[in-house]
Amino acid sequence: MHYSLRFEWLGMVFDISTILMILVTSLVVLFMCIGMTRKLTSATPGGTQNVMEWIVDFVTGITKSYITPKKAAGFVSLALTLFLYIFLGNQLGLLFNVNTAHHNSHGQEVSQGFIDMLTVSTSNEMKQQKLEKVTEELNSTDPHAHGVVISWWKSPTATPSVTFALALIVLLYSHYLGIKKSFGGWLKHTFLNPIHILEEFIIKPLTLPLRLFGNIFAGEVLIAFLLSVGIFGSIPLFIWLGYSVFVGSVQAFIFTTLAMVYLSQQVNEDH
Amino acid sequence: MLDFGAVSLEWGTLLTQAIVFLLLLLAVRKFAMGPIVGMMEKRRQHIANEISSAEQGRKEAEALLAEQRRVLDEARAESKAIIDRAAKQASDEASKIVAEAQAASERMKADASAELAREVEKAKLELREQMTSLSVLLASKIIEKELDEAAQKSTVDKFLAQVGDRL
């Protein structure tokens, strides 16, 4: 199992490697957008502009197929950012791995602060459990054991915190739009039918992020497993990496589409 | 924070992601969507302009074509009229010349026959005069020979009658 370093601040837990990947992915998206739109021309477009226009057309197509054409233009930026962020985030984790291994065997003790960051937990009990496991792995004398392996490079979308954040932004925004359009209508639509209460407050907030997280996380777990198998895992790994590219693209498309569907349910005139 | 060991939901990471995503959204909106929307709007206008100018050009070409066709038809009608007029004029001229020639020949024929008649009368007259003088001469000769008027009268009368018949 791979660990990540966490720290607690203002009563909240932050995962350092995930935050690093969030920043890396955001910067990649940002530089891609700026790079591809730096030399725009309204005449015959060149290479990168074609790609950017294709992406924008694609995302606009998703937006326009769910949200009424009058209001669709206002959601293209959100859909584009969501799509690019999730798509690139999914693919980034497939590029390579950056792992660091830590153990106590060379007469070099891992610091207490480091162990604390590995064992950040909600309860003391959990912390104790983790501490035992970490201590065991750190002091392992098995020559095949790597000690505590920290994964620094992974898809940000393989972390539930990230997918929940994205989903919550979309869902909160959709409710904000619904309330802004008509508070009474929103109340009636959301609370009158128990199925709708279930849908709005349990089903949507769980399925939207967990679908993305589950797909990408499972993909990365399988990649880690195939990597640990060694030479026999190389062909399945190759196939699985190809399939993961496909899954990553499809999940980005699905998340963006569902986001637009959920927004359209609050924005469009007819439900 | 929900912790299931390998999988955990951390509020700090979640909040960080939310803030970073919102910042990214603003940046994308400003640096990518702004220029793209502007460019697409410019392209839309460009295309609309091109279409309307092409439409206008087509209309102009059609108007010009109609004008050309009209002018050509006019020219054709005019040339036809000119040719018709010329042909008519030529045939008129020809018939006039023919008629004039006919008239001239008729006149000449009439003149000639009149002249001829006149000459014949003149010749008759001259002949009669000569005959008269010859008759007188003859008579005088006869009288000179034998003055038997009564006897010769029948001879002269017969002669004169013969001459008068021949003339």
TrEMBL record, chain A:
Q: Which GO terms describe its molecular function?
A: proton-transporting ATP synthase activity, rotational mechanism
Entry keyword set: ATP synthesis, Cell membrane, CF(0), Hydrogen ion transport, Ion transport, Membrane, Transmembrane, Transmembrane helix, Transport
Q: How does it sit in the membrane?
A: Multi-pass membrane protein
Q: GO CC terms for this protein?
A: plasma membrane; proton-transporting ATP synthase complex
Q: Name where it mostly resides.
A: membrane
The keyword Transmembrane appears for this protein: yes
Alphabetical list of Pfam families matching this protein: ATP-synt_A
Give its localization.
Answer: Cell membrane; Membrane
**Which GO BP terms, alphabetically?**
proton motive force-driven plasma membrane ATP synthesis
Membrane-crossing residue ranges in chain numbering: 12-34, 72-88, 161-179, 212-232, 238-263
Keyword Ubl conjugation, does the record have it?
no
Q: Which InterPro entries does this entry report, sorted A to Z?
A: ATP_syn_F0_a_bact/chloroplast, ATP_synth_F0_asu, F0_ATP_A_sf
Family under the similarity heading: Belongs to the ATPase A chain family.
Fetch the NCBIfam families from UniProt.
ATP_synt_6_or_A (TIGR01131)
Q: Report the function annotation for this chain.
A: Key component of the proton channel; it plays a direct role in the translocation of protons across the membrane.
Q: What is this protein called?
A: ATP synthase subunit a
The protein's organism comes out as Brevibacillus centrosporus
TrEMBL record, chain B:
Transmembrane region(s): 12-32
**What does the record say about its membrane topology?**
Single-pass membrane protein
Cellular compartments per GO CC: endomembrane system; plasma membrane; proton-transporting ATP synthase complex
Q: Which residues form a coiled coil?
A: 51-133
Please give the InterPro entries that the UniProt record associates with this protein.
ATP_synth_B-like_membr_sf, ATP_synth_b/b'su_bac/chlpt, ATP_synth_F0_bsu_bac, ATP_synthase_B_chain
User: Subcellular location, in the record's words?
Assistant: Cell membrane; Endomembrane system
Q: Which GO terms describe its molecular function?
A: proton-transporting ATP synthase activity, rotational mechanism; proton-transporting ATPase activity, rotational mechanism
Q: Organism's domain of life?
A: Bacteria
Which Pfam families does the protein's record reference?
ATP-synt_B (PF00430)
Q: Keywords of this protein's UniProt record, alphabetized?
A: ATP synthesis, Cell membrane, CF(0), Coiled coil, Hydrogen ion transport, Ion transport, Membrane, Transmembrane, Transmembrane helix, Transport
Question: What is the documented function of this protein?
Answer: Component of the F(0) channel, it forms part of the peripheral stalk, linking F(1) to F(0).
Q: Which NCBIfam families match?
A: ATP_synt_b
> Which family would the database say this protein is a member of?
Belongs to the ATPase B chain family.
State how it assembles: F-type ATPases have 2 components, F(1) - the catalytic core - and F(0) - the membrane proton channel. F(1) has five subunits: alpha(3), beta(3), gamma(1), delta(1), epsilon(1). F(0) has three main subunits: a(1), b(2) and c(10-14). The alpha and beta chains form an alternating ring which encloses part of the gamma chain. F(1) is attached to F(0) by a central stalk formed by the gamma and epsilon chains, while a peripheral stalk is formed by the delta and b chains.
Name of the molecule in the record: ATP synthase subunit b
| Originating species | Brevibacillus centrosporus
